[in-house]
Automatic annotation (TrEMBL):
Its cofactor is Zn(2+). The keyword Kinase does not apply. It comes from the Bacteria. CDD domains: AcNei1_N (cd08970). It comes from Microbacterium telephonicum. It is an enzyme of class 4 (lyase). Its EC number is 4.2.99.18. GO terms for biological process: base-excision repair. This is DNA-(apurinic or apyrimidinic site) lyase. The keyword Methyltransferase does not apply.
């Protein structure tokens, strides 16, 4: 499932390529035909990302809400204006000693330059998929509009750019009131909410809940944007047992998790990768950008030795989702 950094990056692509343009909307699959007819011919006026959900506004206060869920993705084609900076909503980008912006390109298994994620600033004729695993640009020929491939729930077409939505959990139109209610139901997002106010909201909810912290971090009404990868990594970085009831987690640890999420989310938006390891030398950083296996402390490392203590990483199910953790470091 796309986590918060991916959705913020997708929103930024919409801001550069779709907002301010008149859009032809259609539902090739047919499942969103009525909604597409409503926004067809309207101009996209703004886009917002909150946690794992994106909201695209059109003329006359019509909002399109999209939640990609487990399998959703956006495919962009045509003249794609790519943003190399992906600045955060509040103008601040998380600083880390392994940003590597002066290093040569590092290509992952999908052919993506991980240090800039989806390329340098340019108008590129091509195709890019944006989901949890963003793919690099590829030649799609000269046909315009591009052919419909597979089950496309919604196509948004400007004069130069096409955005195809596939497999979302939610794709619906909302009034401003409905959109505001949806956002209000979500927990704080570091790239949307004031960081200090978000910390207070997060800490207040966690400290009164008997629910295990490993479940609370995945609850989008508690905090927005955290999925399986960031949940496992945040808990390891805090050296916290995932089964600890929220109300039993010391206040300073709860606040530390929030501040760590602020930092990791900013890095994820900037690099396009869920980089959760610190203090890597340049060679190790390049490996981490090129391969997920070198990017995380515990995620996807079941049975492998903990990078800190050597204990085998445990894999278990928590609320039907995979949870990775070290039973020694996180006790």
């Amino acid at each position: 499932m796309p986590e918060g950094h991916s959705v913020h990056r997708i929103a930024r692509q919409f801001d550069r390529n779709v907002v301010g343009h008149r859009v032809a909307a259609s539902s090739p699959q047919g499942r969103f035909a009525e909604g597409a007819a409503v926004i067809d011919g309207r101009t996209a006026t703004q886009v917002r990302a909150v946690g794992k959900q994106m909201f695209l506004e059109f003329d006359d206060d019509i909002w399109l809400r999209v939640h990609l869920g487990m399998y959703g993705a956006w495919d962009f084609a045509g003249e794609i204006i790519v943003d190399p900076t992906i600045a955060s909503a509040n103008g601040r980008m998380g600083q880390t000693n392994q940003r590597g912006t002066d290093l040569p390109p590092v290509f992952d298994a999908a052919g993506e330059n991980s240090l800039t994620s989806i390329g340098a600033p340019r108008k590129a004729r091509g195709h890019v998929r944006m989901s949890e695993q963003t793919r690099g640009l590829a030649d799609d020929g000269e046909q315009w509009p591009p052919p419909i491939v597979g089950q496309v729930r919604l196509r948004l077409l400007t004069e130069a750019t096409s955005a195809d939505l596939r497999g979302p959990t939610a794709c619906q139109l909302q009034t401003p009131e409905e959109m505001a209610a949806t956002v209000a139901s979500l927990g704080p997002d570091p790239l949307v909410d004031d960081a200090a106010a978000g910390e207070e909201r997060f800490a207040a909810v966690v400290r009164r809940k008997p629910t295990p912290i490993g479940l609370l971090l995945m609850d989008q009404s508690v905090v927005s944007g955290i999925g399986n990868v960031y949940r496992a990594e945040l808990l390891f970085r805090a050296r916290l047992d995932p089964h600890t009831p929220g109300r039993d987690v010391p206040d300073e640890v709860v606040r530390g998790i929030w501040r760590d999420w602020v930092r990791l989310l900013a890095i994820g938006v900037e690099t396009g990768q869920m980089m959760t390891m610190d203090d890597l030398d340049p060679d190790a950083y390049r490996r981490a950008m090129a391969s997920r296996d070198d990017r995380h402390w515990v995620y996807h490392r079941a049975g492998l030795p903990c990078r800190v203590c050597g204990t085998a990483i445990v894999l278990e199910e928590m609320a039907a989702r995979k949870l990775y953790w070290c039973p020694n470091c996180q006790r």
